[in-house]
Specification:
Layout (H helix, E strand, L loop, with lengths): L3 H30 L3 H27 L21 H26 L3 H33 L3 H8 L15
Helix pairs in contact: 1-2, 1-3, 2-5, 3-4, 4-5
Length: about 170
């Protein structure tokens, strides 16, 4: 049986991953509505990744004999006033999620749950990539604006495709 506090944190993280998908869907819709379909595609892929993260947590909980409590998913609360806003909001959000993942990992270690800590190592590494991607997007955007080549960057971003996560959890 999983430590109660750890179970609650994992359940909360499941919900926050779905919120992340909502947030990124909001960003994708913002860009698509402005004809920046490459940027929209970038965040459409992010939606899929966040959904995958939630499903991995759910699978882990099931594997451990636990269940997920389905909680309401909050509506994104960001007010976007310009094309760079979602990029900066995404970086801040990924930094926030990194903190949550580190808290989860520490809770698994404190509970003596080495298996869950090992499972969460993938998420720790994933957050390094997520923050790097968000930072790189800001850099590329700033360079494209400075060079008056935002359309070229947008075209490039249309080619991003979803890839299944490298982590799998066999429930059965």
């Amino acid at each position: 049986m999983m430590d109660r506090h750890l179970k609650e944190l994992l359940n909360d993280q499941f919900n926050k991953e779905l919120y992340s998908a909502y947030l990124y869907m909001d960003f994708a819709d913002y860009y698509h509505a402005r004809g920046l379909h490459g940027f929209g595609n970038w965040y459409d892929v992010q939606v899929q990744e966040e959904r995958d993260h939630a499903m991995l947590i759910r699978a882990w909980m099931l594997k451990c004999g636990e269940t997920i409590e389905l909680l309401p998913i909050a509506k994104p609360d960001k007010t976007i006033t310009g094309n760079a806003d979602p990029l900066h909001f995404a970086l801040a959000h990924e930094q926030y999620v990194t903190g949550l993942i580190h808290t989860l990992h520490a809770a698994a270690e404190a509970a003596g749950d080495a298996d869950t800590a090992a499972f969460l190592n993938w998420f720790v590494n994933e957050q390094v990539e997520e923050e790097e991607n968000a930072t790189t997007m800001i850099t590329h955007y700033d360079r494209a604006v400075a060079a008056d080549s935002l359309e070229l960057l947008d075209i490039t971003l249309k080619h991003r495709r979803w890839k299944a996560p490298s982590l799998t959890v066999d429930v059965y």
